[in-house]
Every structure is written in C-alpha cells, then in structure tokens.
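Changelog note: in this version the structure field was regenerated for every chain. One regenerated record is shown below for reference.
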Amino acid sequence: MNTIEETEMLHKMAAYCARTERCPSDVRKKLAAMGATSDVEERIVARLTAERFLDEARYCRSFVEDKWRFNRWGRFKIRFELRRRDLPESLIEEALGELIDEEDYRTVLDELLRRKLRAIRATSSTDRAVKLLRYADSKGFERSAVFDCIRAMKDDNVEVPEDID
C-alpha cells in the first residue's frame, strides 16, 4: 500500500470521526472494509487518537449518556455493548458510575415496569410476571433491581404478579 492511499484513508477516517463519536473498533472495521492492512490500521488509529479524533473515555461517556437518556437502557445492556466494542473495563465502569444516578435508575425502571404492566394483556399472574421480567431483561436491567422495583410496586398497592418474590 502506498502512502497516498494511507493518507487518503486517514483523511476519510478523520471526517468519519468528526461527524460523531467513534471508538477505535468502529474505525478498524471501516479501515478493514477499505482494504487496509493491520499495520496501516494501527498507524491511522494511533494518529487519530493523538489528534483527539478518537478518545475512548469520551466515547464511553457519550455512549452511556445517549443510551441511558434516550433509549432507557439498563446498566447491563450498556456494559455489554461497550464490551463488544473492546473498550477498557475501567472506562466503562467509570462512565456508568459517573452518569447513571442510582435514584434515577430506580425511578426509570419503576416507570418502565408500570407502563409495561398496563400494556400487558396476559390473563394469568404467571404470564404477567414472565412478560415483565423479559421486558426488563431486554432493556438491560439487573434482576435484583427488577425484583426490588416490583416489591415496591406491591407496597404501593399496584396490581402486580404474585409470582415474583
């Protein structure tokens, strides 16, 4: 590969990173699709990192904030997606701890479960319980938090499945 192609790839990746936050694995995938060798990928990623087009910590914070605020994902799902992108565990935990307040977390989970409970058309208590748990799992909330929330809903005299305890 000659330097003109590498320079062109660098400029394309800089523009790609400038549009929105990207992580190094996103850039590597894009470069691999362009036919770059692993050496070229590493040089370009290093250069983009040095020039602050790529920043893993900034990406983690942005990802957590977006998925929490707009998609209402739980910690488990956010953590899983960030791990899939090969980001350091320390940065993931730091972003989760910094941006997701425990009280907010419980409030959002409660709101989601109450809304889902109203929409469930199951006749038996067991079916309602299973559907609530599946929904919370799909959103990435931890089972212990889900059970705590359902117990709190029972205390508020909300008609919740008896099977959950």
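Spot check on this record: Residues 102-119 form the longest helix (18 residues). The chain has nine helices and no strands.
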